[in-house]
Amino acid sequence: MLGAVIDTRTVAGLSDTGVRRAAAVALRGVTKDFGAVQAVRGIDLEIAPGEIVAFLGPNGAGKTSTIDLVLGLSQPTTGSVEVLGMHPRAAVARGLVSAVMQTGGLLKDLTVRETAQYMASLFAASGGVDDALDRAGISGIADRKVVKCSGGEQQRLRLALALLPDPALLLLDEPTTGMDVEGRRDFWRAIREDAEQGRTVLFATHYLEEADQYADRIVLVRKGLVVADGSGAEIKALASGRTVRATWPQADTSALEPIGGVDSVEVRGDSVLVHTSDSDAVARWLLTNTAARDLEINARGIEEAFLSLTGADEGDQS
After folding, report:
1. pLDDT tens-digit profile of 94-110?
2. The pTM is what?
3. I need a labelling partner for 225 at 20 to 30 A (CA). Which of 39, 149, 198, 309 fits?
4. For residue 293, what are the β-bridge partners?
5. How many domains does the chain divide into?
């Protein structure tokens, strides 16, 4: 993470007269080959300043290769990549980009504050250490040695380090790994506050509900291509069908097979979940032909949409 405090309004090209700013991230016709392997097959993606975007896909979908391009760690085989209207390496060199990875070297014998002070000393200019620790929610453990911090606390420390240069673009890889429920909520509250001030956030997570809840947009990639791009509600709407849940002890699920539109049936104890494109027909049949009760009909959730649109097995989620 390289850094300097720079007015993001000026860098991004937004004047006081309201002229449109350059995109925070712009990929146009991007491909990336590694020998005979085409990791990225033609991605077109534009992210506006201040957006919080979840970048999701199964293992091998091309997420890491795309993030490396945005960070300037590699060059596209074809197409162009711009960050805040400039080459990614130029944006990084000017301190406009920070990344928080799931793992990363931390000096275990230093305290949290000493770690932040050391990192701040590497920048030509940076925000205050105390402010960064406060925004990351770890002011209360500033004097604790890193080795004594939990995994979630260490991840918050990485966030504090990334915030020191006051970046315009923040990339997060599994940002809430190791955090408890309260910690995740506080983390995303801080991220939302930053986004409201104009910071752009691009993150990858395997917590699909987290992406649904906190991202302005969800971008799904599969085999190096964007297969869906929209709000959580729009992504879920792309996964056709609904789920009918009912209490049906000793269910004879084979009787459901003749009903049109039934995609799959799951039995969980006394509950039966029927995934179908015709929920009315399934509900009507259950109520008139079986002892099923307590029926619920729900649109498919973000997990079902992810699996449907990316063709991923549950074990491949990333």
Report:
1. 889 999 876 668 999 99
2. 0.77
3. 198
4. 247
5. 2
